[in-house]
Specification:
Chain lengths: 1058, 479
């Protein structure tokens, strides 16, 4: 369907629509005016009591908004005129929760209120254009009131969210401080585009992209680490069709509201923390003596004779041997890499103001060391938030934040030569850290790489220099002008300026050299600069009105615009003359490389939303966005065409019914709230690459001639991914909100999913980028909260629980096998995406006869076929052809969890509060690549203790195969031996806070906190930790490539109010 | 309310405790030793077997007990107490012998019965044959093989295996071949092994190291250097020892061909006699053929009836024989001089005129041709060393496949101008393949040594007349 409209026509249409609406507003104003003149109604009375102790509450406001209001007297009694007995009252008071009470035909109601810290179904959700009580939204929305944020000084906002939002699977990337988490809402939504939710901070999109990656192994510069949790007032998460964000809302929207001054009096908050990070529990590897026995065996399988083996310097036990002391140590290399470290945090916030201007100024400093020695994260944050009342009709606000980060890091993951953690696992324990003389005198100089060409982990710790410094300015200025109490014009301008600089130096001494295309890299240098500049504007008209106390209407019409420019430049140098010369310029000229990337994209989003509420019982919501983007192809099939450009249309509708407000529920006193809601809509994902919809050229070099060559197959029809979202939910509150339950069921369908489609080799390219895939996610989510005890000791307990099922519906070729470090994953139509695809095993052949009985063969690296024998892994021949090859691969694991969630507890007693949160993930499989290396028994690398059970002789029953140099039979191929259950239950945070009682004077309050993170983890996973996330893409989830593990930490801090 | 709270707390506690157990167990379950024996070392296994107490005792007294607890891997073939009951007192009483005896039952690395037969090096340096659950023919006790441990394997042997002598050791200890042994020992010499020598200082003038007096001097033997190292345990050899009478008989037979100074004659004759008495590999008596080929490619006739003693040594086998009837035609073989292996030319400035040609019909597939050199009497020199003192018939093979006219060339002895042999015509070869050798003449060498032969071109500068061509020269002793 192509709809073609000239630009002028659209503009005139828009103007016409605007005029029409204004006209409509004018008429409506008249009708309300008439209504206000005659106040007729009925009387309602009632008592308001404190839910904690049952005492009457005086001074509580009871209102029928836009109609009437009253305060309770000393006995907590109020009396109010309302239009009829089908309305809903709004009850609120300072220090107490806000609550809606439906009359349901009654003329008298008794209400008990909790204090404001209570998590209530009537809490406000900070939606993009409004604040609506959760009880009135039709969307699947979670609002976090962040009561415990003061106790979490080291958490980034993404980490903080873990477990708190049912259906948002937050997987922390690694134990590197500040590195944050990858967030997957309701499973994987796409294979090749971003799966991360859209983050909006104070109304402006917060750029979360990665521009060109890092020169530091497996490092991710996490933009959310720029926001101090203590500066955040509220995080609201929209899980269903957030169509108002058009082609950016496919993975949900995380709305962060930073704190503004609430009161006019000057308030000063000061907080400081100090803490210890504990070095993680170690992976048990062989000690020096067991390792040497292993080494004897493995060298023999190399074909070495006894004499050759005994001639190795490490085999001589003669102290007179000049090499004796060099090879007779017993070093725990993990001790040399992991060290307990410290954390400190200071924070100061000043808020205050007058009738005209209110301000909040905050500054913070965080210094968090990693548990891998030599890693460090320093953050300096400043924020200035202000609100200005410029005239009765014109308000303005500003949110300005500047953050500077200094990150000192080490390589992680698949950097086998420079990842200190990996090196510490494979390094021979009989080697020493420092050089040693023939007499055994230890030198202060570190040992160079060893006889096995494995680097010295200490050399990486001490001499490798990897720094990432970045700063981000994120500022918005907003205005709203009220034409009338109902009609407002809002406009928000914002700028993001982000700059990142990296410097890396890997010394030659103590590090194994790397092989380049045209040389050997002895020492390595790199620098990188990334820059991002974004201009953002969001302008809209809003309309809010309640007619006759029955019909509530709110509508918005607006446009968002964002222009982004990014630049990335890097330079790599190699082989400087000495390890003292550490910059790229000092490297060998012949090997130097430079490169970079420019990005420039623009997004334009027209949107409108209309929400209608009838008697605060029936809710209807309509959203529509029309998106244009420089990324979309000009010949995109979907959407509409305007002036040669394709615009995507993203409508959504929602409906809700507050059953509990119906008259027939009047008798059901136990039920405070029962709401049924459903939404259906479209969103999109525009992470399709800046230039993939165009044909571009890249520079190339052929035999010394420089030129440009085609860089891609431009796909003019390339478009956004379309995500259809259906969500049905029920919200229940029982027993005066002692028990609340939110239940959601959803079905998300991804169409036009971005795929890398293989093309014929004559095309000269490996693939073309097309919109040829699709997948489904279905699932349920439960959030259950309850106040178990309410007298004296208050005990809140809650659980979030989410279950998701993923199924691919469309792929080019119906199945796709993608390589994964030494393994592969399969995505097949009708099955969940990215399942581990490898060999099934059934133990180890106990004897040659047993292997001969099977008579399976496999291809050696040389191409010859060979028979398995005793001690080889018994692979299962799926196709019964007696040959173990790629055709015998089957699905051996599912990286997606069966369910995830959190179990949390909050206890309060006489000024003490105790919070404990247990997060869990169940049923997700992990490919333990690290263990696959540590139990491969194919070289001189140190191994885990399990290899002591290696097969030695016919008849030996064990599940560990024989040691074999180079693993000729490929016993270590990607099989279920390396797939493990990654389920875990973790005491994620536990914190005890004490509000020190004293008479308020100069100091207003003093709180003391003791917080523990990750103190207990229950898991069968055989690795440092079952939680890691190497990349944001779904592909590398659940593959343990050896990242810095999560660690335990304990923090003690206090907060002082002036 | 309280009771229900307690219930919750108890539940929570139970939950945590269960989890905590799971936490500590996870590695244990994965890496616990499947068999307790994998945590023991070989020595513990030996000690655990009361039937090995005697061997254990010897292990302790020789110091090997410590080694067997260390972290390398070992295989121990431990003889039972019964097997050691009748051990020779001379072994038990001499610590060095006992040590070698014990070491003869221990090797590095793991060896299991299932492995193919192979020679295993024991800690005393001797190799024993291991295969088919037999060590050097001795059975492993039934059910007591392949006891693996953390650092090795234990097999129980039904009898002990005292270390055997090597060929060299046996020869020295034997008195049946006194003359041969005496001669072999006369080939000993001392040499400086710089890898073993201790450096005293570096000579500042030359930059070369100066070694300490007497350090690094090792004793070597020219027979071991030039024939086979029958001292080494690493390879297997078959060695023939001649009784004095047989030695003398053969010595005298070949002595005339090594005419020189008396000392040199004795040395040369002796070496040429014994150089053909060692053979690669262990050739057991039952496999002994009637002819063996020596390291110097000499056919050695073997008469099994002449064997007076056979000794199976640790590195092979020794036959003591009272007769080895060497054939002179093999012992004093013809001398071949390949044309292409020239020692020199009368002119060195015309390499482009000298062609070493690839020819399928040529001996060694190459011949030599010199043409267009424009030099009268151009010559090629060949030095023949090791010329036996005897009379020779001299042949050449010269194939003129490159010029249609015949040309002349001659062979001169000792001096290019010598006229012992006249010029001979080399006609164009119509069939190079079947062009035969040509007898040049006879020559008698009176002394063993060397001689220079010259191939001389025609005395002409005409290039059609003065080419030279030679496939080979052959000196055939007239025996």
């Amino acid at each position: 369907m192509h709809i073609y409209l000239p630009k002028i026509k659209v503009l005139s249409c828009t103007i016409a629509f605007l005029l029409l609406t204004l006209n409509l507003f004018a008429q409506q104003t008249d009708s309300t005016a008439t209504a206000e003149r005659v106040i007729t109604g009925v009387k309602v009375t009632g008592t308001i009591t404190d839910a904690d102790n049952g005492l009457p509450l005086p001074g509580i406001s009871v209102a029928m908004p836009g109609f009437s209001a009253a305060l309770t007297d000393d006995n907590g009694i109020f009396s109010l005129t309302v239009p009829d007995y089908m309305t809903t009252l709004l009850v609120s008071g300072i220090g107490h929760q806000t609550k809606e009470v439906a009359l349901k035909g009654r003329n008298s109601v008794n209400v008990s209120l909790y204090d404001e810290s209570f998590t209530s179904v009537y809490d406000l959700a900070n939606l993009p254009k409004s604040q609506i009580p959760l009880s009135q939204t039709v969307h699947s929305v979670v609002s976090l009131n962040m009561a415990d944020k003061w106790q979490q000084p080291t958490q980034t906002p993404d980490n903080y969210m873990q477990g708190r939002i049912a259906g948002l699977n937050v997987i922390r990337r690694s134990g590197t401080p500040g590195i944050g988490a990858n967030m997957f809402l309701r499973g994987f939504s796409s294979l090749n585009t971003s799966n991360q939710p859209l983050v909006v901070v104070d109304g402006m999109i917060y750029d979360m992209n990665d521009y060109g990656g890092s020169q530091i192994g497996n490092y991710f510069s996490n933009p959310l680490s720029n926001i101090d949790l203590k500066d955040i007032d509220n995080i609201t998460f929209i899980k269903d069709a957030a169509s108002m964000y058009g082609s950016k809302g496919a993975n949900g929207v995380m709305l962060i509201t930073t704190s503004h001054a609430k009161e006019l009096t000057t308030k000063i908050d000061f907080a400081t923390y100090g803490g210890i990070n504990f070095s993680p529990a170690q992976i048990p590897v062989l000690g020096a003596s067991e390792y040497r026995s292993y080494l004897s065996d493995i060298l023999k399988t190399r074909g070495w004779t006894d004499d050759q083996i005994q001639a190795q310097p490490y085999m001589s036990d003669d102290e007179a041997n000049p090499q004796y002391f060099r090879y007779h140590n017993n070093v725990n290399w993990q001790d040399e890499v992991f060290k307990s470290s410290s954390t400190s945090n200071y924070y100061l916030r000043v808020t205050g103001g007058d009738n005209i201007a209110k301000y909040g100024l905050s500054m913070g400093y965080l210094d968090q060391d990693g548990t891998v020695e030599g890693t460090d994260f320093k953050r300096y944050t400043t924020r200035f938030n202000a609100d200005y009342k410029m005239s009765p009709k014109l308000n303005a606000s500003s949110n300005l934040a500047f953050t500077y980060n200094e990150h000192i890091l080490k390589d992680e993951g698949l950097y086998a030569k420079t990842n200190p953690v990996y090196l510490s696992l494979i390094k021979a324990p009989f080697l020493g850290v420092n050089e040693v003389s023939e007499e055994g005198v230890i030198s202060p100089n570190l040992e160079d790489r060893d006889i096995f060409n494995i680097g010295n982990p200490r050399a990486i710790i001490q001499s490798m220099n990897a720094r990432n410094n970045n700063y981000r300015f994120f500022g918005t200025v907003g205005f709203d002008y009220a034409f009338s109490p109902e009609i407002k014009l809002n406009s928000l301008f914002g700028i993001t300026y982000d700059k990142l600089r990296e410097n890396v130096f890997v010394p030659r001494r103590g590090v194994a050299p790397d092989t380049l295309a045209s040389g050997i890299a002895e020492s390595r240098m790199a620098s990188q600069i990334q820059r991002l500049f974004t201009i953002y504007n969001d302008t809209y008209l809003s309309y809010n009105k309640v007619y006759n106390a029955i019909h509530g209407v709110s509508a918005n019409l607006g446009v968002r615009y964002s222009n982004n420019r990014s630049e990335e430049d890097f330079a790599l140098g190699f082989n400087s003359a000495t390890d003292e010369l550490q910059t790229v310029g000092t490297g060998s000229t012949a090997l130097r490389r430079t490169g970079g990337d420019l990005g420039n994209w623009t997004w334009l989003n027209y949107y409108t939303s209309i929400n209608y509420a009838l008697r605060s019982k029936y809710f209807l919501s309509f959203n529509l966005a029309m998106d244009g983007s420089s990324r979309f192809g000009k010949e995109a099939e979907q959407g509409i065409k305007i002036a040669d450009n394709s615009f995507g249309l993203f409508p959504s509708i929602g409906a809700g019914w507050l059953v509990s407000s119906e008259n027939f529920m009047a008798g059901a006193d136990a039920v405070d709230l029962l709401k049924i809601r459903a939404t259906y809509g479209l969103t999109g994902n525009d992470d399709i690459g800046n230039y993939n919809a165009r044909q571009y050229y890249v520079s190339g070099n052929l035999l010394g001639r420089q030129g440009i060559v085609r860089g891609n197959i431009g796909n003019l029809a390339l478009q956004w991914e379309t995500h259809q979202k259906l969500n049905v939910g029920v919200d229940v509150a029982l027993l005066n909100e002692r028990v609340t339950l939110s239940l959601d069921a959803y079905r998300n369908t991804t169409n036009n999913m971005l795929t890398y489609e293989p093309v014929l080799s004559v095309a000269g390219f490996d693939y073309a980028i097309t919109n040829n895939g699709g997948m489904n996610n279905t699932g349920v989510e439960v959030a259950l909260n309850s106040r178990i005890m309410n007298t004296g000791l208050k005990w809140d307990a809650g659980i979030t629980f989410a279950r998701n099922h993923n199924e691919l519906t469309k792929l080019p070729g119906n199945a796709m096998i993608s390589p994964l470090v030494n393994g592969s994953v399969i995505s097949e139509v009708g099955e969940p995406a990215l399942m581990f695809y490898g060999y099934q095993t059934n133990g180890v052949y106990t004897s040659d006869e047993e292997a001969a009985a099977d008579n399976y063969t496999t291809k050696l690296y040389s191409g010859a076929m060979a028979n398995f024998r005793g001690g080889d892994v018994r692979f299962i021949d799926q196709n019964n052809d007696k040959v173990i090859n790629d055709d015998d691969r089957v699905v051996i694991g599912n990286p997606n969890p069966d369910f995830t969630g959190m179990f949390h507890n909050h206890l309060e007693y006489k000024g003490f509060t105790l919070d404990a949160a247990l997060t869990f993930s169940y049923g997700n499989d992990i490919y333990n690549y690290t263990r696959a290396q540590l139990e491969s028994m194919r070289g001189p690398e140190n191994q885990t203790l399990a290899v002591r059970n290696r097969w030695q002789i016919n008849g030996m029953v064990t599940n560990v195969p024989r040691a074999a140099w180079g693993d000729p039979m490929n016993n270590n191929r990607f099989s279920d031996r390396w797939i493990e259950d990654g389920s875990y239950l973790r005491l994620r945070t536990i914190s005890l806070a004490y509000n020190v009682p004293f008479a308020p004077g100069f100091f207003k309050y003093l709180n003391v906190y003791l917080t523990g993170n990750n103190l207990l983890t229950f898991s069968k996973y055989l690795g440092y930790d079952p939680e890691f996330s190497a990349l944001g893409s779904p592909m590398m989830q659940s593959t343990d490539i050896g990242l810095a593990p999560q660690f335990k930490s304990v923090l003690l801090g206090f907060r002082l109010g002036l | 309310m309280i009771s229900s709270t307690n219930k919750y707390i108890l539940l929570l506690l139970a939950f945590i405790l269960i989890g905590f157990n799971a936490c500590t167990d996870k590695w244990e379950e994965h890496q616990d030793l499947t068999e307790a024996v994998l945590s023991e070392n070989v020595l513990q296994q030996i000690k655990a077997n009361p039937n090995l107490s005697k061997f254990d005792e010897y292990l302790t007294s020789t110091g090997y007990a410590d080694l067997l607890q260390s972290s390398k891997t070992f295989t121990v073939w431990a003889p039972t107490n019964q097997a050691l009951a009748n051990l020779d007192q001379s072994i038990i009483n001499d610590p060095a012998t006992l040590k070698s005896f014990v070491a003869n039952h221990i090797s590095n690395q793991r060896y299991f019965t299932a492995q193919p037969a192979q020679r295993v090096k024991m800690l005393n340096g001797k190799y024993l044959t291991w295969g088919d659950a037999k060590l050097e023919g001795v059975d492993v006790e039934a059910g007591a093989a392949n006891r693996y441990t953390a650092n090795g394997v234990l097999h129980v042997l039904t009898s002990a295996i005292p270390p055997k002598l090597s060929i060299w050791e046996f020869m020295l200890s034997s008195n049946t071949a006194a003359k041969q042994v005496a001669f072999l020992q006369s080939l000993n010499y001392d040499s400086l092994d710089v890898t073993q020598a201790e450096i005293e200082r570096i000579d500042p003038a030359t930059g070369q190291p100066v070694y300490k007096d007497g350090s690094g001097i090792t004793s070597r033997n020219r027979f071991l250097d030039r024939v086979y190292d029958i001292k080494s345990e690493d390879s297997l050899y078959t060695f023939i020892m001649l009784t004095d009478a047989a030695y003398d008989a053969e010595y005298n037979e070949i002595k005339p061909y090594f005419n020189s100074t008396p000392d040199s004659t004795a040395h040369l004759t002796g070496f040429h006699l014994i150089k053909d008495l060692a053979f690669k590999g262990l050739i057991a008596p039952e496999n002994l053929p009637d002819t063996l080929i020596s390291a110097y490619n000499v056919k050695v006739p073997i008469d099994k009836n002449a064997i007076v003693q056979t000794y199976r040594s640790s590195n092979g086998i020794v036959y003591v024989m009272n007769k080895v009837d060497f054939k002179l035609k093999y012992k004093i073989p013809p001398i071949m001089i390949e044309g292409e292996n020239a020692s020199g030319f009368s002119r060195t400035d015309i390499p482009e005129r000298i062609h070493r040609r690839y020819r399928t019909w040529a001996s060694n597939l190459l011949d030599i041709r010199v043409r267009d050199h424009g030099t009268a009497s151009f010559n090629i020199r060949y030095r023949v060393s090791n010329l036996y003192s005897t009379k020779y018939k001299i042949y050449w093979r010269a194939v003129n496949d490159f010029i249609a006219t015949p040309f002349d060339q001659k062979l001169a002895l000792k001096n290019p101008t010598a006229t012992t042999f006249p010029y001979k015509t080399v006609p164009p070869a119509t069939d190079p393949q079947n062009t035969g050798e040509v007898l040049i003449g006879e020559y008698t060498a009176n002394r063993y040594g060397y001689i220079d032969l010259y191939l001389v071109a025609a005395n002409s500068t005409n290039n059609t007349l003065n080419p030279l061509v030679l496939d080979y020269l052959k000196l055939v002793p007239v025996l």
